[in-house]
Amino acid sequence: MCCVHGHEKEYRVLLARRPDQEQLEAWRRGVVLEDGYKTTPVDVRYETGQGKGAWLRVIMGEGRKRQIRETCKQLGLPIVRILRIRIGALRLGNLKPRQWRYLTTEEVDALKRKDVIKKTNRDPHPRSSPKSARSK
Q1: pLDDT by residue (tens digit) across 110-135?
Q2: Which of 62, 72, 78, 113 could make an S-S bridge to 16, C-beta 3.0–4.6 Å?
Q3: Mind giving me the DSSP string for 29-40?
């Protein structure tokens, strides 16, 4: 799903102009970027207008580097600002750029539970390779 172990990411995005419904729907379905990669569907919601622009909330399961910027470029939507709100259940709160904090025990446990759930959802009966099947 993503480079951060499949954890959902949430952003607030300030656009220089308000998107129309067609642009929002295209973004929700997935957009083909310049390199030919098609993004997976995302949850995009109009939050509020700000002057001629608008704040959007974007929730995505994948997160290629600069994906929001490249998607907006393809849709003709100039970006003013991008704020990451959360990664998985981790809310970033009032952390400034390049600032960090230790995770709480509860946050670490929640991340571990998510990884355990993903591991237990794997096929309990892995198939043997054709080579090992022949040797039986």
Answers
A1: 878 765 544 444 444 444 434 444 44
A2: 78
A3: H--B-TTSPBPP
- Residue 31 has a CB neighbour count (10 Å cut-off) of 20
Let me know: does 16 contact 66? Beta carbons within 8 Å.
Answer: no
Q: Quick check: helix, strand or coil at residue 118?
A: helix
Tell whether pTM > 0.85: no
How many other CB atoms sit within 10 Å of the CB of residue 60? 21
- CB-based contact 67:74 (threshold 8 Å): no
Q: Report domain extents, the chain.
A: 9-120
- Interatomic CA distance for residues 128 and 132, integer angstroms: 6
Q: What is the CATH number of domain 9-120?
A: 3.30.70.1560
